[in-house]
Known about the structure:
Blueprint: H1 48-54, H2 58-63, E1 74-77, H3 78-82, E2 124-131, E3 136-139, E4 146-148, H4 154-167, H5 174-186, H6 189-198, H7 202-212, E5 228-230, H8 231-242, H9 248-259, E6 264-266, E7 272-274, H10 285-288, E8 293-301, E9 304-312, E10 316-325, H11 330-344
Antiparallel strand pairs: 1-3, 2-3, 2-10, 4-5, 6-7, 8-9, 9-10
Amino acid sequence: MGTDKPVDTGVDHPTDDATVVLNPVDVEEPPAAAGGRSGGRHRAAPSPRNRDRRRRTILIATVASVVALGATAVLVPMAFARLGGDPDSSGRPAPSGSQTPGPSPSPQPSGLVPGPVQTIVDGRFSWALLDRSTGVLTGSSNVSDTVEGAGMMRIWVVADYLRHATEQGGQPEPYRLAQASRAIRNGDDDATQALYEAAGGATQSHRMIPVCALVETEVHDGGWRRTRISAGDSVRLGDCVADGRAAGPKWTKWVLDEMAEVNGEASDKGELTGIGWGIVDGLPPAVTDLGVGFTNGFVRADSQWQVNCLAATDGWVLAVLVSYPDSRKLSYGAGICASVAAELAPPQPVD
C-alpha cells in the first residue's frame, strides 16, 4: 500500500462524548513470560530535535474538550488477562475471588496515573494503560473491542522479523535493517510488507498471539494491516516489544531506539506529516525527556477514519484507538490521542 501519506488537515472539535471513570480493584503480580523477559527495562533517550518537538501540546489546546459522565472503566490484572479469562457483558473480568478497593496510585512526575478520562469524541474510542511495574491494565469500558490495527501493527512485523532472523542463525542484511528503520520511523508500508513476507507472511501475524499473550486479537489473512486488535491487546503488544519478547535480547534496544525517533509532527495549524504525532503531543516534558517510544497508524474505510496510537516507556504503555466520521480531518483523531494522554499525565510543578 505504500507509506501512510501525510494528510493536510485542519483542526476540528468533538461534539459527542465518551467518558470513562476508574474503579480500582486488587490485582495479582503477573506471571513471567516463558523463558523470562530477556529485554529488561529500556530507556530510549530522545534527540534534542525530537525533545523540543514533543514538548508541544498544540493538538490538545485546539481539540480537547471535557465533560463529566458516568461510564465505568476496567482495571484488569495482567495475570488474569494472560490466562484468557472471559470478561462478562459489562466489560469487567469474570469474578476470581473477593475484590476490595485498592489504594490510589501515587502520582509520579514521569509516569501516567489511571483515572477518569473525559475527552469528548464525535464517534467512539477506547483506551488502555498498562502499568509495567505492577501488571495492572486500566482502560475504558470497551477496552476489549477490536478494530483494524492498520499501521500500528508495524512494530510487531519489524520486531518479529529481527527475532526470527536471529533464531534462524542469521544476521539481517543491511538493506533489511534499512527497511526496518523506514517502517518504524517513517511508517513505510512497502518496507513493512517486505519484512512481513520475509518472515512468513500470515504465519508471522499468528505468532504474535502466543508470543505476546494476546487475548482478543483476530488475525486476518488479508495482510498485517488487517489484523483486528483491542486497546487491551495493544498495550500488551507494546509491553511485548518493550520487554524483549517480540524482538529478542539482541534487537529490543534497537527497536525501542527507532520508536523514539519517529518522524513527523502536528503543526500549529493542525496539519500532520509522517506518523510522529498523537500520544506524544499530550505528554509533559517530565515524561518525554526520559524517552518515549511510539507508533501510530490510520485507515479510512466505510466513511470512517480509524486512528490508532501506541506509546511505551520503562514504566507504562498507553494505547488509544479512535473511530469517527471521515468528514472530520485526520488531525482530529491525533488530537484525541493527545487529549487522553494529557488527562492521564500527573500534574506538573509550576515554575
